């Protein structure tokens, strides 16, 4: 029992150390990073696009806004259905072998029952935790 308790606290300690940078990276930053500077358009381009939009007729403006809303709705539906996959399966598979609960958490995006099952299986025997995490990562379960 003492050995199991020691393993549990060791795993939780390591998990908290490893997951803290991941959680910190997922929080929004108040400072613009180097990545956002590359993706943001130039202010001159934004101003010219706004001027062009303002010069359109009312009917054309409504049509463009309606089209933009439709595209946003399609994007959200694709993201929910899994067609717009953003995670890298290879990295999740490697992480599933090293730290199964963390891989399950990153795949699911929340702490749910699959995460707890993975954590328990990993704490008990590790190999079943790896197998379960791989099944979750590859959407077999």
Give the SSE order as H and E letters.
Answer: HHHHHHHH
* Count of helix runs: 8
Based on CA atoms alone, the radius of gyration comes out at 22 Å
SS-derived structural category:
mainly alpha
Shape: elongated
Helix content: over 70%
Mean pLDDT: 78
Number of strand elements: 0
Poorly predicted tracts of residues: 33-37
Main sheet properties: none
Span of the ends, CA to CA:
32 Å
Percentage beta strand:
under 5%
Name the descriptors.
mainly alpha, 141 residues
Model description:
With 141 residues, the chain is an all-alpha fold. The protein has eight helices and no strands. It has helices spanning 2-26, 34-39, 43-54, 58-81, 89-98, 100-108, 113-124, 127-137. It starts with a helix and ends with a helix. The relative contact order is 0.09.
Strand and helix layout:
Blueprint lengths: L1 H25 L7 H6 L3 H12 L3 H24 L7 H10 L1 H9 L4 H12 L2 H11 L4
Helix pairs in contact: 5-6, 5-8, 6-7, 6-8, 7-8
What's the short version?
This protein is mostly helical. It is 77% helix and 0% strand.
């Amino acid at each position: 029992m003492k050995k199991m308790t020691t393993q549990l606290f060791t795993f939780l300690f390591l998990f908290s150390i490893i997951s803290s940078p991941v959680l910190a990276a997922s929080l929004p930053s108040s400072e613009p990073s180097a990545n956002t500077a590359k993706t943001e358009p130039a202010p001159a381009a934004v101003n010219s696009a706004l001027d062009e939009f303002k010069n359109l007729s009312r009917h054309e403006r409504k049509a463009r806004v309606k089209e933009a809303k439709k595209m946003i709705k399609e994007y959200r539906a694709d993201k929910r259905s899994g067609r717009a996959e953003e995670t890298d399966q290879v990295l999740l598979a490697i992480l599933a072998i090293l730290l199964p609960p963390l891989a399950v958490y990153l795949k699911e995006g929340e702490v749910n029952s699959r995460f707890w099952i993975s954590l328990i299986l990993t704490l008990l025997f590790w190999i079943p935790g790896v197998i379960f995490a791989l099944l979750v990562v590859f959407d077999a379960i």
